[in-house]
Design goal:
- The chain is mainly α and 195 residues long.
- 62% of the residues lie in helices and 2% in strands.
- A two-stranded antiparallel ribbon has the order 1-2.
- Strand 1 and strand 2 form a beta hairpin.
- Helix 2 packs across helix 3, helix 3 runs antiparallel to helix 4 and helix 3 packs parallel to helix 5.
- The N terminus is likely disordered.
Amino acid sequence: MTATSSSLRFSGCFVTLLIWAGCTSVVCLVDEKLTAQPATTIDTTHGDSTLSFVCGTTSHSCVGYCSFCHEEFSAPTMECLHYLLVHLCIPKFNHAMTSMNSTNWCTWGNVSNYYSNLSLCTEEISDCLKIPWPNPLVEQTFVDIHSKFFKECPSEELSDPPPVIVMALVITPICLIPLMVSLVVLKTKNGDGSS
């Protein structure tokens, strides 16, 4: 058995595993009406109702998110995630950003805490609902936020150096090559080179 054939065999097994894993967890993102996990029944911390799906953890906030999705959407769908993001995560970020001067929006030190809190909020709700994170909805949320708050921020694009520096960087090797060739020729003509 060669290394190539064992590598191909390993790759085939790995691809099969990925396809199988994708069929069990990622398919739920294709149709927003599908639930995130197969139906099972668990008791909430209140003990008065049951959920027909798996909830991420038993923390109070997580059970609250799952209960809301169960009551309003019958399952932890992308619609429910969207509703929770729009009503819980995004308003906090919007309030924090509008409370600061817009000239400070482009300074990462000023907004990093709010940005991290938004990221953690989206991740926590997604994890509670057992919806993979990041997902297209979360990505679109961040694209929308960037277009609203950060589109005027200057980006650090790479630019060409000044012409003087370009000329120096081009001329230096051009001048050194003939100099090095002449040194080699002179050294071999004088018989100093012992080979």
